[in-house]
Each structure stands twice: as structure tokens, then as C-alpha cells.
Amino acid sequence: MKQLDNNAGHQLLNTASLIDFRIGEPQFQACTDGENLSLQVELILSNDPEEDPADTVEWAAFGMIFALAVLSFADARPRGSSDIDFVENDEFTVCDLFECLRFVNGDLRFYADYVRGRCLKTDITVSKDGQIILSTLNRGKSALRWLDQLQGKKRLTLV
Questions:
Q1: Is residue 155 a part of any domain in this protein?
Q2: Which of 12, 16, 19, 49 could serve as a FRET partner for 65 with CA atoms 20 to 30 Å apart?
Q3: Tens-digit pLDDT profile for the chain (159 aa)?
Q4: Which phi-psi region, left, alpha or beta, contains residue 9 (left: φ > 0; alpha: ψ -120 to 50)?
Q5: Is the dihedral of CA 92, 147, 27, 105 positive or negative?
Q6: 97 within a domain of the structure (yes/no)
Q7: pTM greater than the 0.85 cutoff
Q8: CB of 21 within 8 A of CB of 43?
Q9: Would you tell me the crossing angle of helices 53-75 and 142-150 to the nearest 10 degrees?
Q10: Is the distance from CB of 88 to CB of 116 less than 8 angstroms?
């Protein structure tokens, strides 16, 4: 069963690699503890003004959600007492995706709080018109790095 899950995951990531999207202006809000941030950013599927994002969402939604969830999981660390469930080289799976996926008020919604010791605090809402809202809590600006990775942008590194 693990091999089938890996194959499905690879197919979803392959789909995500084909998606063009625009990133709206990120909105940051300080959390009540004064240390952490919540982030919300709107994504529109398609960079082509001639292409209807509603057409793109039909084939791209699951791939986009899975790719963002994988990046969130890979970047997440334990918080508080969740370190007892944390496994260093763990991977996010298609099974994890479906445990966190719901259909709510006509939108496809992924929400993950803690997954196997990792603090994800990631919410992804995909509407049928091709709009995606990516929200994170207590994750700083890390979601913007994930979006850069999905768009193939290289990160700066010290030489």
C-alpha cells in the first residue's frame, strides 16, 4: 500500500509542477502572544489573462493542495509537547491529505493543525472560481518560501 501512496503523491506533485499561478499581496497579522504571525495570501490559478482560472482549478486543485501541504509538513517542527510524536525523516502522504480534506460551503478545504508531531497550522481553501486562500498561523513568513519553490524560484544562499 505504501508504494501506491507514493505513486499517487508523485503524480499530484507532478500536476502541481504544471500549474501557473499569481500571488496576491500577503496579509500579516500579529498573534496575541506578540511573537508569532498569521499569514494569509490569495493565489489565482493561471498567469494567462485569456485563461479562465475556473478551468484550471478542475485539474489543478488536488495537486496544488498536496504540494503546499508537503512543503508545510517538511518545514514544520514540533511545538510544545508534540515532540514526543515527532519523527525526523517522516513524509506527508496522500492518506494524510485525505484525513485533512473537507468540502465546505462549495469549497475544497484542507486544514492541518498537528500531524505526527509537526505543527502545521496550515489552511488551504480552493474555490471553484480558481481562487486559493493559503493561511498559516505561527509559521512566520515560511508560506511565501513555499510559493517561491512552487514557482521554481531559487533561494539565495551564502557563498
A1: no
A2: 49
A3: 466 567 899 999 999 998 989 899 999 988 776 667 899 999 988 777 788 888 889 999 999 999 999 999 999 988 877 777 888 889 999 999 999 999 999 999 999 999 999 999 999 999 999 999 999 998 888 999 999 999 888 766 666
A4: alpha
A5: negative
A6: yes
A7: yes
A8: yes
A9: 130
A10: no
